[in-house]
Write a structure and sequence with these properties.
By secondary structure, the chain is an alpha/beta fold. It contains twelve helices and 15 strands. The strands form three sheets. The protein has a six-stranded mixed β-sheet, sandwiched between helices. A five-stranded antiparallel β-sheet has the order 11-12-13-15-14, with helices on both faces. A four-stranded antiparallel β-sheet has the order 2-1-4-5, covered by helices on one side.
Length: 359
């Protein structure tokens, strides 16, 4: 249905500098697929949707829709907009028009259908999204969740083959998110082809047939929800889906600011609501750096916490080391650390060797 080849998008800033937001995007989207696009802010997710719908014309590449390159000179954008609909995070309803008129206006203009037919179809769509009783209301009379459901009905009135959702719940009060996601779930069950930029990880996992993880302007990983959320290939994907927060230190010698490290760790634990682990983290880091591994400097110390698994860990990494630094160590030296830890994992890495202490 849609094939994207070597797509790029570069913006020029007011000072003349350039920012490449999309870098060599390649993918295929088949009929009936529901693809959630996830990733950190600023990685090109919304720009990709806007490029597909030609709201931001790409810098280079191809977008093939039903066998036609929509970037080719002379391709009629009205034809594209009838095939590919878009739902924005900010609703974009016409505040001076009733809900019924918001839905009927574009089909009457672009599809050329008469008002009675357009209104009949609009009422059917409003019933589909649970808002038939609001047909003659004004947008100002609706909640954010209701406005977004109207925006979805308006999009459906154009009979699109594909719908692009750009963070459809990000502008909503948390209590209203569920009603919008329920409508999108039903569209997925009905077989609608959709691309959804979302930060709702549980929703993305439940509703999608595929997940795109975007990072630094690329589709960094493309797979099933099970693969992306349970067995991601790339460390950046793993960190994002597990919402892993980290704090990094390079202990390069005896003059390192150990008091500063302790303060930063305390602030980290408070920020992520795990301050009950403070004494264990302080004791483990102090003993590992000062008593267990003082001979292995420079030593990289990393404190991590996963929101998904609720696992907090201290990593002690030694570069260019092939065997565990704990091998042959007096067991009594490590005993206090073992007493505080849930587990101690010794593992080689591409750069050296890591001792991971689960707190």
């Amino acid at each position: 249905m849609i094939t994207i080849n070597h797509l790029t998008k570069t913006f020029t800033n007011p000072d003349g500098t350039k920012l490449q937001v999309l870098k060599d995007i390649n993918c295929e989207i088949s009929k009936g697929e529901v693809i959630s696009i996830i990733g950190p802010s600023g990685t090109g997710k919304s720009t990709l949707l806007r490029a597909i719908n030609m709201m931001d014309a790409p810098t280079s590449g191809e977008i093939i829709v039903d066998g036609e390159n929509i970037l080719a000179k002379g391709y009629p954008l009205n034809k594209l907009r009838q095939k590919v609909g878009m739902v924005f995070q900010s609703f974009n309803l016409f505040e001076h028009l009733s809900i019924l008129d918001n839905i009927t206006m574009t089909p009457m203009l672009l599809r050329g259908i008469a008002r009675p037919e357009a209104e009949e179809e609009a009422l059917t769509l409003l019933r589909k999204v649970g808002l038939a009783e609001k047909a003659h209301a004004m947008p100002s009379d609706l909640s954010g969740g209701q406005k977004q459901r109207v925006a979805i009905a308006r999009c459906l009135a154009m009979h699109p083959e594909v719908i692009l959702f750009d963070e459809p719940t990000s502008a909503l009060d948390p209590t209203m998110v569920g009603e919008v996601l329920s409508v999108i779930r039903q569209l997925a069950k009905d077989g609608m082809t959709m691309l959804i930029v979302t930060h709702e990880m549980k929703f993305a996992r439940d509703v999608s047939t595929r997940i795109f993880f975007m990072y630094d302007g690329y589709i960094h990983e493309d797979g099933t929800p099970q693969q992306i959320f349970e067995n991601p290939v790339h460390s950046a994907t793993k960190a994002f889906v597990q919402r892993i927060h980290k704090l990094l230190f390079e202990v390069d010698g005896p003059d390192f600011d150990f008091l500063g490290m302790r303060t930063d760790m305390t602030q980290f634990l408070i920020k992520y609501n795990i301050s009950e682990k403070r004494s264990a983290v302080e004791e483990i880091s102090s003993r590992m750096v000062g008593q267990v591994l003082p001979a292995y400097r420079p030593l990289t110390v990393r404190l991590t916490h996963s929101e998904q698994s609720e696992v907090t860990a201290l990593d002690f990494m030694v570069r260019d080391l092939h065997d565990s630094p704990l091998a042959g160590l007096d067991p009594q030296l490590l005993a206090p650390v073992r007493a505080l830890a849930k587990d101690i994992i010794e593992e080689p890495t591409t750069l050296g060797f890591r001792v991971k202490v689960i707190v």
